[in-house]
Amino acid sequence: MPAADKNGVITLEKDVELAATHEFSQDVTLNLNGHNITANDVRALWVKAGTLTITGKGLITSVKPENGSLDDASSVIRVGGEDSNDNTAELVLGKDVT
Q1: What's the pLDDT tens digit per position in 36-93?
Q2: The pLDDT of residue 86
Q3: What is the C-alpha to C-alpha distance for residues 48 and 25, in angstroms, rounded to an integer?
Q4: CA distances from 97 to 8, 59, 88 (A)
Q5: Helical ranges in 1-98 per DSSP H
Q6: C-alpha–C-alpha distance, residues 79 and 93, integer Å
Q7: Hey, which residues does 60 pair with through a beta bridge?
Q8: Whole-prediction pTM value?
């Protein structure tokens, strides 16, 4: 996953494959820009704190191989910190995100 620019924006220039969950702890805008994020046997994104705003056309998925370890009940994007009472994280999805 590319780093955010000075304005806190990540713009994908190509499809991204993740082998580990990408974590966010501050306000960031993720522009899919017509590209996809595929997480392999892991949750794709975790918003621990701040607001993650996802814009642009694109698809975010987690793929579990036949003998994978990803929990079947796992979400593709987790919102919230380690403590279930932590309400400092937020997710905003644009209309073209799938």
Answers
A1: 999 999 999 999 999 999 999 999 999 998 888 998 888 999 999 777 666 689 999 9
A2: 64
A3: 5
A4: 19, 6, 23
A5: none
A6: 12
A7: 37
A8: 0.89
